[in-house]
UniProtKB/TrEMBL annotation:
<keyword id="KW-0472">Membrane</keyword>
<feature type="compositionally biased region" description="Low complexity">
    <location>
        <begin position="205"/>
        <end position="236"/>
    </location>
</feature>
<feature type="compositionally biased region" description="Low complexity">
    <location>
        <begin position="176"/>
        <end position="194"/>
    </location>
</feature>
<feature type="compositionally biased region" description="Gly residues">
    <location>
        <begin position="195"/>
        <end position="204"/>
    </location>
</feature>
<keyword id="KW-1133">Transmembrane helix</keyword>
<feature type="compositionally biased region" description="Pro residues">
    <location>
        <begin position="156"/>
        <end position="168"/>
    </location>
</feature>
<feature type="transmembrane region" description="Helical">
    <location>
        <begin position="50"/>
        <end position="70"/>
    </location>
</feature>
<feature type="transmembrane region" description="Helical">
    <location>
        <begin position="120"/>
        <end position="145"/>
    </location>
</feature>
<keyword id="KW-0812">Transmembrane</keyword>
<feature type="region of interest" description="Disordered">
    <location>
        <begin position="156"/>
        <end position="236"/>
    </location>
</feature>
<feature type="transmembrane region" description="Helical">
    <location>
        <begin position="12"/>
        <end position="30"/>
    </location>
</feature>
<feature type="transmembrane region" description="Helical">
    <location>
        <begin position="91"/>
        <end position="108"/>
    </location>
</feature>
<protein>
    <recommendedName>
        <fullName>Integral membrane protein</fullName>
    </recommendedName>
</protein>
Length: 304
C-alpha cells in the first residue's frame, strides 16, 4: 500500500464518500403527520420504506470511492490489471456517475403531496455525490487534482554557509589548531612541532643569527616543499538557484563523485526533492536523509 501515491483528487473522493455515509443516517424524507403520534416525522435512507434509495445512491457511491482508492493504493503495478475490460478506478468513476444520476431523479420524484418533502440527508447526499463524481472524473485531467497529497519535503539547508559549532573549521571544534588550549601546528616545540619562524628567539628566513647563538655554516638550508594543489570540484553555474522538483517515474540516483558507479538511491514519484547543483543537463539532487547524487535523466520533471 503506497500512501504517497494518493493525490488531491483522491482526498476529495474520500471526503465525498465520508459525507455520503453520514448523510445516509440523516432524514432523507420528511413527513407532515399533523401531530399524529403514530406517524414517523422523517425517514432516513436505511428505512425499508425508501428502498432502493440506499443501495442505488449511497452504497453505490461509497463503493465507487472504495474502488478508486484501492486502485490508487496498488500503485503503478495495477495499471494493467482489469476486471471485465476496465480498471478498478474506471469502474469507480462509472459507479459514481450512476449514483449521482439516480440521486438527481430521486430528488425530482416522490409522492405528489405537500405532506412529503426531502430532508437534509437527501440534499447532503446529492452534494457529496457531486464532489465524489466530479473529483473522480476530473482527477486525470486537472493538474491541481493530480498533485501528490503529501510532499515529504526535507528541511532546507542552512543558507548562511557558516559552520555550526562542533563542526570542522569552527573555533569550538575539538582538536582545532590554536583554539581552546590546542597549539597550532608548527608553533610549539613541546608538542612535536617546529619553532615558528621569526618568533621569540628564532630568526626568520633570511635574517642573521642572534648574538650568542651557534651557527653551523655547513648545515644545508632546507628546501621548501612545493605546494600541492588539491583538485577543486566543479563549481555550479553562477546563475543556478536550488529548487524543488518531482519525477514522473522512478529514476536512479548516481554517486555524486562517480556518476558511473552504483546508484546511491532512487527518486520516486509523489515526493519532492531538492536540486542543489546543475551539471550540464544533469542535476545533483538531495534525498530526505541528506544523501546527494546525480540525476542524469531530467526529462519530464515537475518543478515545485
Amino acid at each position: 500500500m503506497n500512501l504517497r501515491a494518493l493525490t488531491r483528487g483522491d482526498a476529495a473522493v474520500a471526503g465525498g464518500a465520508v459525507l455520503l455515509f453520514i448523510a445516509s443516517f440523516l432524514p432523507y424524507r420528511t413527513v407532515d403527520c399533523g401531530g399524529s403520534p403514530y406517524c414517523p416525522s422523517s425517514l432516513n435512507a436505511w428505512s425499508t420504506e425508501l428502498f432502493p434509495v440506499l443501495p442505488s445512491i449511497y452504497l453505490l457511491g461509497i463503493l465507487a470511492a472504495v474502488l478508486i482508492l484501492v486502485q490508487r493504493f496498488q500503485g503503478p503495478a495495477a495499471a494493467t490489471r482489469q476486471v471485465l475490460g476496465l480498471r478498478l478506478d474506471q469502474w469507480g468513476v462509472g459507479f459514481a456517475v450512476a449514483a449521482l444520476w439516480t440521486s438527481v431523479w430521486s430528488l425530482g420524484g416522490g409522492p405528489n403531496s405537500n405532506a412529503f418533502g426531502h430532508g437534509f440527508g437527501a440534499w447532503l447526499g446529492f452534494i457529496s455525490l457531486i464532489v465524489l463524481a466530479g473529483a473522480a472524473a476530473a482527477s486525470p485531467l486537472v493538474p491541481a487534482l493530480k498533485a501528490p497529497l503529501t510532499t515529504d519535503r526535507p528541511a532546507a539547508p542552512f543558507p548562511g554557509g557558516y559552520p555550526v559549532p562542533g563542526q570542522p573549521g569552527h573555533p569550538g571544534a575539538p582538536g582545532a589548531p590554536g583554539q581552546y588550549g590546542y597549539p597550532a601546528q608548527g608553533h610549539d616545540p613541546a608538542f612535536g612541532g617546529q619553532p615558528a619562524a621569526g618568533g621569540y628567539g628564532y630568526p626568520g628566513a633570511g635574517q642573521p643569527a642572534q648574538p650568542g647563538q651557534p651557527q653551523d655554516a655547513a648545515a644545508p638550508q632546507p628546501t621548501p616543499a612545493p605546494a600541492v594543489q588539491q583538485p577543486q570540484p566543479t563549481a555550479p553555474a553562477a546563475d543556478f538557484q536550488p529548487f524543488w522538483f518531482a519525477v514522473p517515474a522512478p529514476r536512479p540516483l548516481a554517486p555524486k563523485d562517480n556518476p558511473a558507479g552504483a546508484p546511491v538511491g532512487e527518486l520516486v514519484p509523489g515526493t519532492w526533492y531538492l536540486a542543489v547543483e546543475q551539471r550540464g543537463a544533469a542535476l545533483v539532487a538531495q534525498l530526505q536523509d541528506g544523501t546527494q547524487g546525480v540525476l542524469a535523466d531530467t526529462t519530464g520533471i515537475q518543478r515545485g
